From TrEMBL:
Quaternary assembly: Component of the Arp2/3 complex.
Entry similarity comment: Belongs to the ARPC2 family.
Subcellular location(s) of the protein: Cytoplasm, Cytoskeleton
Recorded GO MF terms: actin filament binding; structural constituent of cytoskeleton
GO cellular-component term (any): Arp2/3 protein complex
Keywords (A to Z) from UniProt: Actin-binding, Cytoplasm, Cytoskeleton
One Pfam family per UniProt: P34-Arc
Described purpose of this protein according to its UniProt entry: Functions as actin-binding component of the Arp2/3 complex which is involved in regulation of actin polymerization and together with an activating nucleation-promoting factor (NPF) mediates the formation of branched actin networks.
Domain of life: Eukaryota
Record's keyword annotation contains Cell wall biogenesis/degradation: no
GO biological process entries: actin filament polymerization; Arp2/3 complex-mediated actin nucleation
Entry protein name: Arp2/3 complex 34 kDa subunit
Amino acid sequence: MAFFNGGSRALVEILTRFQSAERPMPVDHTFFEFGSVRYHVQASASVPENVYLSISTPSLSHEASPSTSLPEFTLQEARKMYRKFAEIVEPAKEGYALTLKLNFSALARPKDRARAVRQVSLLQSVVLGSQLKHLLGNLGSSGATKLVYNHRDPFFVSRTPGKISAVFPMRFRDDTDIAVAASFFQELQDAGSAYARAPRCSWSAIPPPELRGESVHHLTTNGGFVSFDIFERHVKRKRAAKTAWILLNFQAYVKYHIKCTRNYIQSRMRKRQESLAEVIQNARLRGGDDKKKLQARKKGKRRLFSLGKAKKLQKGFRAVIDGIRRLRQRIRVKALDRFRRCFVVPKLATKKHNYLRLGA
């Protein structure tokens, strides 16, 4: 349900590869999309110009068209869109609702062929859009019509005087999706009230009055009910197909938007967690460096303390040595000098005795 433009990528790839082949080759492919839409592409090597494309898709409303074949208004819509290079094969291939015979030989330019392939890939949107457009134009005035585009998420449309109401029961699997969806619906409601020409959008946790009488199984939701008011101008001419396709893909778009928002929030939280972890790691590293610096500083202080203590001891030792030196010097008495100047002390004469060596 992620292809909101309505195109089938697998169908584009198959048709493009078939056209770009150098030699004609047979094609016989059957594939499914969205679980309920089935395609079958067939072409023979003898007549490579003709490609038969068959599609089988469930009807939007079994009450409006209970038969397996497509209604006439859908066939007319397909003829109008593919009249230049395709025609409808009647009856359709067994087991399918519609079969087209494609012939791109009339389109000479590659650009025109690529455009035609893109138009063919929109076949499902043409079928479902024409059905919804027809239902919107032929709604009764009483009751709501249940439409099933995705069997898990049906929605309802009802007509009131002057407008058409589309009600979408929203269901989500995760509690996180419910919280994001509530914020999204509030923004959607505010945006709808800000623009006068936009359809009025409302959201409520209980079923709106349009769904009175519906089965409880269809009204059991965990995301509430979203309602749109569609006016007559939205279902006229070219706007009708666009409005129909928007309604068909609204629930898928909401879930896609919520998943993207959730992934964005988770990525931001993951980046924030990584940045906080980096800050904590850097703080731890700086704390380790500060601890090392503190230890080095303490060691430096210890060294400075030991050096200061050694200097003090050396200074004290020098003081002791100087004191000892002062004690060894001659003690001078100041009064003795004065006494010497007053009295002359005669010098005593000394005789030299010469001694003879005995036994000389």
